[in-house]
Give the backbone structure.
Amino acid sequence: MAPPGDVTRQLEATERKRLRALVEPDIDLARSLHAEDYQLVTPGGKLLSGEEYLGQIASGELDYRVFEPEGEMVGRSWGDAAFLRHRVRIAVAFDGQQDIDSFWHTDIYELRDERWQTVWSHATRIR
């Protein structure tokens, strides 16, 4: 098993790649970085499955213009599970609206088939 610092660096790289895939959008890459049973809790409290979430991005219904980390990412790992918490700056268009703000983002990852995939995400608006 990799030392905790190595795991955190792996997760940071994976998370940055995942966020870029959501903005570009590169749905094939995004699907590979999200577990099949992925779930997102949005800042509004809505629970989305991975299919719903990535489907909205693929269709353009959810259009990330910016999804970038702000500052340090903090991670912890236990065996094949880990979490990563960080602030993000998001600019997104959805439902005919635009939203630009900073959020806390927490992602739970699992090591599956020798690669880290996110299984749960939770975003909280910073007021």
